[in-house]
Design brief:
Blueprint: H1 2-17, H2 28-37, H3 43-55, H4 61-66, H5 69-75, H6 82-100, H7 104-108, H8 112-120, H9 127-137, H10 147-156, H11 165-175, H12 180-196, H13 211-214
Helix pairs in contact: 1-12, 2-3, 2-9, 5-6, 8-9
This protein binds a DNA duplex (13 and 12 nucleotides) through helix 3, helix 6, helix 9 and helix 12.
Length: about 220
DNA sequence: CACCAGGCAAGTA
DNA sequence: TACTTGCATGGT
């Protein structure tokens, strides 16, 4: 059954890679900023951008809310796509200000599914960013899906290659205990696996900790 | 030099 | 609905 297989893969990854200590940020606000800035971007670049915000004392809701979008863009430049990301981050801050008075604790008390819908209505917040905020900033038991998840688990054969984000998310959430810690580590471990072994053009299947599940899966005929 | 990274929205057919 | 493209820096 899939529920056992999913858990077995998790255990192998955890045993092989260990705890991942996500999200690498100090506060809820920093996690939210990072979630926006890391869209299609290496985390090392996001760290530089957040470092700039820290140096300039902008890592508080009030300061960030006040700063002009074009000035914010300059500070987050190392994260790439800085003009559009500055706007998107501003959109999200505006949403949090108007709906929760800029208070992340208030936002955290909102019903999870309702909040997810609200976040998705913000221009610049898609499913992965919304779920990352829910899981890593607000400790909600929501499974985060990304390109690695889709690539790896469709290769294993337990996910269809044309499955949507929601399909994949449901699959994991229906076959695992809904536990924030488990979802936190599992997504982080999948990213680790994707980066180290399941790269697009340079797979390293020989050393992959779940090579039995991936590389020796019959291809169909 | 080419390719990729913890996406998303808008445009096109 | 199902592709395609713009967005941009920094590491390998």
């Amino acid at each position: 059954m899939n529920d056992k297989k999913i858990l077995r893969i998790y255990k192998k990854l955890y045993k092989s890679f260990g705890k991942q200590y996500w999200w690498p940020a100090k506060t809820k606000l920093e996690v939210i900023i990072g979630a926006m800035l890391t869209q299609n971007t290496a985390w090392s670049n996001v760290e530089k951008a957040i470092g700039n915000l820290r140096k300039n004392k902008k890592l508080s809701f009030k300061k960030l809310y006040k700063i002009k979008t074009d000035k914010l863009a300059v500070l987050i430049k190392p994260a790439g796509y800085f003009n559009i990301k500055a706007k998107r981050l501003k959109n999200l801050l505006e949403f949090i200000k108007s709906r929760y008075n800029g208070n992340l604790e208030n936002m955290q008390r909102e019903n999870t599914q309702a909040l997810r819908g609200q976040l998705l209505s913000v221009n610049g917040v898609g499913p992965e960013t919304a779920d990352s905020i829910l899981l890593y900033a607000l400790d909600k038991p929501v499974f985060v899906v990304d390109a690695y998840t889709k690539r790896i688990f469709s290769k294993i054969g337990i996910i269809s290659s044309n499955a949507t984000y929601e399909d994949i998310q449901e699959f994991f959430m229906n076959n695992l205990k809904r536990d924030t810690y488990l979802f936190n580590e599992y997504h982080a471990l999948i990213v680790k696996l994707g980066k180290d072994y399941c790269k697009k053009n340079r797979p390293n299947c020989k050393a992959c900790p779940i090579k039995e599940e991936i590389c020796s899966v019959p291809t169909g005929s």
